[in-house]
Amino acid sequence: MPTLKRTASTSLDGPDTKKPVKNGTGTAAPATGIAEDTPYQQLLMALESHKAGSRPIDQLGDKKAVVVYWMRMRDLRLSDNRALASASDTARSLNAHLVVLHIFSPGDYRAHDRSARRIDFVLRNLVDLRQRLSTLHVPLYTLTIEKRKTIPERVVELLTSWDSTHIFGNIEHEIDELRRDIHLIELCEKHMIQVDLLHDTCVVEPGRVLTKENKPYSIFSPWQKNWANIINQDLSSHIDAAPDCKPNDPSATDDSRLANLFEVEIPASIPGFELAEEDRKNMESYWKAGEAAAQEMLEHFMTSPLDSKEPKQATLQMGSTKLSNNGKADTPTIVDQYSTLRNRPDLPGTSCLSAYLAAGVISPRACLRASLEVKEKGKKSKKLQVDRRELGVGMWQSELGWREFYQHVLAAWPRVSMGKSFNEKYEKMVWEWDETKFEAWKAGQTGYPFIDACMRQLKEMGYMHNRGRMCVAMFLTKDLMMDWRTGEQWFMVNLVDGDLGSNNGGWQWSASTGVDAQPYFRIFAPLAQSEKSDPNGDFIRQYVPELKSLSGKAIHDPYHVLPPDKFKKLGYPKPIVDHAVVRKRALARYKNPGCTSDE
């Protein structure tokens, strides 16, 4: 079995921040329902303590100051960005200049299995952001820091060289990032620099959606009900957009400390994470950069009808195809049909916003605001309707909830960031390792057409339909009986929308090792999933051209349906396992973790 890199490590040490602090009005107050020994809680306590000891703004000196917003990999937008809005407002109140900082960290990319596709998407969005910020006289300064442990020190060096009084950022929930920010606070305190880190990734921050026992939820349904109730009780404060970034005074371009920052170009690639030319062109075609592209896709999903005559194309058109409803107000839109379409990869029935949400090119608040514009019988809803899953918009809101739920899990149970099963009894699981079969799975050569189509979609697009993700993950963990971590890592190094919370949560759900996971005895049958998810075989024909001449039962199960001579001519592999046989092995292994019995 291959040696697996952990998706997150514990190598960055932060200060001891377990001392109790008074509850106050800090940027991010401690979350009462999360244990004090979690890095997330430690960061909140450090922020609270730092806020209590910070100097009032009017005591920061007369020198024209600089306020810095540290843009990370998951908040690449100017609109509805809480940390950027706060940094901009603070700069305006201090008559200071605003600087936007982004750090390229190859060490973090390697440690966290960041894909070259994900990094390419970040770079292309930064190019768009730099151009837009320049019209506001705001520099976007980027630099590469090879040694990730030194990032806090290097950031403080920059802040002091710019005479910065404040640094703002949005909170990230992964272990390394949390500990990095704790260390940043400690260093900034020594240099009299104020740190403000805000909740932006989630509509409701981790630690607020709690059980009656004041504990975090590990089951999605009650979590979702509570989450939606919290939002609905104060809709405005949760989903209203943050103010826009305000322009700097034009004199910022002449400031000797900042002038050179405007000259720094966004690199075309990061060494060690370059894309092959064909892949680069594919990513540019499939995943256009910029907030405008994300907004266009959202509007397409919300307002355009489904053209059911066309199978889902490889590019999904990414919102660029304008489907008109011909003025018919009663024509169902894509979101209207989401409840029935979301499990059909052969049809363009999803928003395809995952890459934009993962990179923060669009905010989850913007998605919820748009969902509340959807009318039912001519009327808009004034609240989330996650309990009405028969409604397309209610189901979509629920799916946005899953994304947020997994962020809450990261914060509450950091072990899932470290390659650990949430359900610890499955750490004893005896996994198989067969490199030939694993390579067949990766290449989409398993002999199961739907599984292979999904894996080839990943290879081509850096994306896979959510139904496909569940099916291929269950095939790897239940049919091939291989460690879910091998699949989790393969996804991360190939996905353009790779996100630790969602990817880990999805893999552990399919492997039956995670929070609110699929029961181990419910094992997807590849053939049944194929016939249900791609009934006409259009999705298979798209990605498995060897089978494009087939139809009916044959396209779903060519090895068993076709005569041997006809199957051989296809040039397609026979199934690498017999599902009925390996299903029994999986049931035996999961029933008694640690056993090696196959019966």
From TrEMBL:
Cofactor binding note from Swiss-Prot or TrEMBL: Binds 1 FAD per subunit.
Q: Which GO terms describe its biological process?
A: circadian regulation of gene expression; entrainment of circadian clock by photoperiod
Positions binding FAD in this chain are 338, 350-354, 396, 399-406, 497-499
Q: Name the InterPro entries on file.
A: Crypto/Photolyase_FAD-like_sf, Crypto/Photolyase_N_sf, Cryptochr/Photolyase_FAD-bd, Cryptochrome/DNA_photolyase_1, DNA_photolyase_N, Rossmann-like_a/b/a_fold
Q: Which residues form the Photolyase/cryptochrome alpha/beta domain?
A: 66-203
Domain of life per record: Eukaryota
Co-factor requirement: FAD
| Ranges annotated as biased composition (Low complexity) | 24-33
Q: Polar residues compositional bias: what residue ranges? A: 1-12
MF (Gene Ontology): deoxyribodipyrimidine photo-lyase activity; DNA binding; FAD binding
Chain positions of site Electron transfer via tryptophanyl radical: 431, 484, 507
Q: Name one Pfam family in it.
A: FAD_binding_7
Segments for region (Disordered) = 1-33
Q: Name one GO cellular component term.
A: nucleus
Give the record's keywords alphabetically.
FAD, Flavoprotein
The record's similarity note reads: Belongs to the DNA photolyase class-1 family.
Question: What protein does this entry describe?
Answer: Photolyase/cryptochrome alpha/beta domain-containing protein
The record lists the lineage as: Eukaryota, Fungi, Dikarya, Basidiomycota, Pucciniomycotina
